[in-house]
Amino acid sequence: MKYFLSILILISFTFTFVSAHGYLAQLIIDGKAYSGNVPGAQATPSVIRQVSDISPVKGASNPDLNCGLSAQFAADVADANPGDALAFDWRGGDNQNWPHNTGPMLTYMTSCGSSSCTTYNSSSSKWFKIQQVARVSSGGPWAQAAVMEGFPANVTLPSTLAPGNYLIRHEILGLQGAVSVGGAEFYPACSQIKVGGSQTGGPTEDELVLLPGAYSDTDPGIYDPNVYDPSASYTFPGPPIAAFAGGDASGTSVSGDASGSASASTPTATSGSSGSSGSSSSLNPQSLSKLLNEDIPS
Ligand SMILES: *[C@@H]1O[C@H](CO)[C@@H](O)[C@H](O)[C@H]1NC(C)=O
Ligand SMILES: *[C@@H]1O[C@H](CO)[C@@H](O)[C@H](O)[C@H]1NC(C)=O
Ligand SMILES: [Cu+2]
Description:
This protein has helices at 2-18, 144-148, 243-246, 249-259, 267-271, 276-281, 285-292, and strands spanning 22-29, 32-35, 78-80, 85-92, 105-113, 128-133, 153-156, 164-174, 185-195. The chain is of the alpha+beta class. The strands form two sheets. The chain has a five-stranded mixed sheet. Residues 246-298 are annotated as: Disordered.
């Protein structure tokens, strides 16, 4: 009996270790919940693109950095509006809490063009960043630690976002191994939404990036020898938050508090946007989707 118990403990210990990864289990938009499929399970209609495994994407140039491991098209699309509160509920593999507490969370969007996102392949899309969060305060825990405690990650859709079909890509970086090059774990998850309203905001061309493409394994926010030093500043990987989204109240206050000096916005990025909000708000939905999908005939 004693022997049997130790085997059981050994098995459960091994299982816990092996399954210390996870996936986006639910997206809540303005209070309405949409369930995701368990990775690898038989898919039911969802707005969240199903991935093949709870394991992380490894390597900044891995094609799966786009939407997660072998991400599949999802059958449904969620309606949303500019300024909506989004909550991303990440879970561990066996529906236990998300297992990590170290590293930032970042949110990107891309346009699916004039048709719905249900069959839109984003592998060569141009993405813009709308939000990012690191430590909740200088010296404080990472915001991701609250996800480990069972809370969702919160993101606000930009209040001036132009209507249209979009993928929203919420990403957790597990940096618990980031003291070594190649140690970072990437967990991207793409959800299919249709934004209504009559706003006109969108990114500028120089704010758009490819994913993979925007990150390198040696970026300071991906290979980070100081990741466990609470007072060290953190440099987010990828582009700065798009100017039209940076003006959004909750988005900026969260990332501002969290990043200290760290926001990835480089001086060059702001110099390009003379009359920033004016130039981006002149984009209509057609020109926005054209900007984001230049290879798609309009
Ligand atoms: C999207 O295109 C890439 C490159 O051709 C391909 O590897 C991937 O499987 C496609 N994604 C889906 C969901 O079909
Ligand atoms: C998201 O918001 C809820 C409600 O305010 C809060 O309890 C939770 O901690 C937030 N999540 C994160 C990751 O900060
Ligand atoms: Cu993990």
